[in-house]
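Lay summary

Proteins are chains of building blocks that fold into shapes. Our project writes down both the chain and a compact code for its shape. Here are two examples, one after the other.
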Amino acid sequence: MTWFQERLSGHYGQMLSMDTVLYHWRTEFQDVLIFENEAFGKVLVLDGAVQLTERDNHIYHEMIAHVPLMAHGSARDVLIVGGGDGGTLKEVLRHPVERVTMVEVDGEVIDLSRRFLPMVSGGAFDDPRATVLVMDGTRYIRETSELFDVIIIDSTDPMGPGESLFTAAFYEACKRRLRPGGVVVVQSGAPFFQSEELTMVCGRLSGSFPGVRPYLAPVPTYAGGMLALVAAGETREGLRPSYGVLQDRFHHLQGSTDYYTPEVHRAAFALAPAFSSRVETPMNPGFLKTGS
């Protein structure tokens, strides 16, 4: 049996059996590996890091999409930067949005995902509300005059093609492209092993947004089993509305989610001290308090 090994740190790794290799080649930007695993189904790997599996991708995609959209409550125009597999696009389109623009730098990832992982996007690329642009996300944000209600940064880790999406300048440019009341969300890696990344993202976002809050989602095939995301907007409280408000907004999602619920939304922002103490910043020392 052939095994894929992912090493996130020098002393820790995880292994998945490659029961069938479906594709392995290098695009202009990154190495792409797609294989089948008996436990998790099809697996997408970019530059040696697991991006998603058929079995657990819904947790990541639901939490990166529904948390900001439900926090906003009335988003019409949404921008997704990255997200070439189409999973986030699919979840965003469950909402009554008018337009979703997806900007992905690597068009081959879109093509390969549609070919080998069609269940992840579920036909989202063909939705008339969706516009897909193959170009650099930082360039798009810098050059566009469009305004959005929610911006979702569904990127790889801050290396290779995803590196430019983690800068303070990029976050400030995102803020300029948001309408009043807008929300941005950023994926921030595996916090148990990449706490520095989470600290960096929170600190840089807090330079542009008054309200910055990390939240967590359990994704079994991410190293350590936990994913960190960071939401930012005009207020901290607005990112974690009351249960009653979330329940009122949940009606159009009822029965369509496998992980996200209003209860999960609020619980995801409750951080253990081991995480909250690492992302406290002098610029905004109170942004991690979980009382609201």
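And here is the second example, written the same way.
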Amino acid sequence: MDEEALTALAFGPDARSADPIPRDGSPRQRLLAAIVLGARGRYAAAADLLDPLRRGSDPLTASLAASTLASHRRQLGAHVLARKLDGEALLAVGLRGAGEWRTPTGGSGMAGGGLAAAGSGSRGGGPARTGTGAASPAQGPTSATDSPPGTASRSAPVSQGGLVEPAEDPHGLDLQGARADALLGLAADNLALGRISAARRLAVRAAQADRRWRATIRGGWVGAEIELADGQPEAAVAPARLAYETAVARHARRHIVKSGIVFGVALLSAGQDGARELVVAAAADAEKYELDSLSWVADRVAADLDHDRAEEYRFRSRQVLHAVLRHADPGVMRIAHESPWVPVGPG
């Protein structure tokens, strides 16, 4: 499988493939393969590819690999591990180009967090929430039509204080995107630890770092989660809607599924119509495209919305989550079992 095929699986309209995902190739190919493996819930296999990349000599690849591994950890409730990796990712590329940022006390803004509960029936209480892993203020992202496929400007390499800025990547696998990924991850990490104000500040920095399609979508996910965590469900609808509409405009299947879950949860929490249709469609697509990392979450939320099929959805959610945990490394599996965000117990 070549780089183009891996890119299509990671960011394109069809997330399915009968081919085995290759574990070799260029650093970019291995990064893309890890993204695809993680989406399918094959976290240990993804980590095998990401660990060497994050320890490699190229700061950009190291940053993207650390952010990707952090998102996989966060999806299973390992927020403290994710925070360390997101901080590592940001240190690799720095904040240059995203503006200097210090906390009011003068320290760096690298505390972490995330939010990962799979519906109102999950442990931890509160409104229905999803574990997504990005953040954005409502005013930050640009429209859903920015940077259509294949039309991103290709600039000449620019020096960034020891880093060489490559040509702009249409999917954000460049310095701008790496900074945004790290900042969004840190915002999500902060959120899980209850640091809502820090999450908001990091979200603002992420929006300043990158306003292209992938950062807009990921920003919408945690932008919505910030508002839900802050007890403002009506305010969560706008960033969730932007994420969903941007994903649909880009025909990015994996992002459509995740955005449908987030948008559905936001509508449900705000008492607005349309949540059931979005989440049920996301659950169906997650199963169809074998996106196990999203499937167990979608099924769990769908169980709260489709009462006639609630037991079916709950059974499938437990089944998929069990399979995902079997494909995680032992340390993360233990953390998932101890996490209040991952419903590994009965029900």
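What can we say about the second shape? The chain has 14 helices and two strands.
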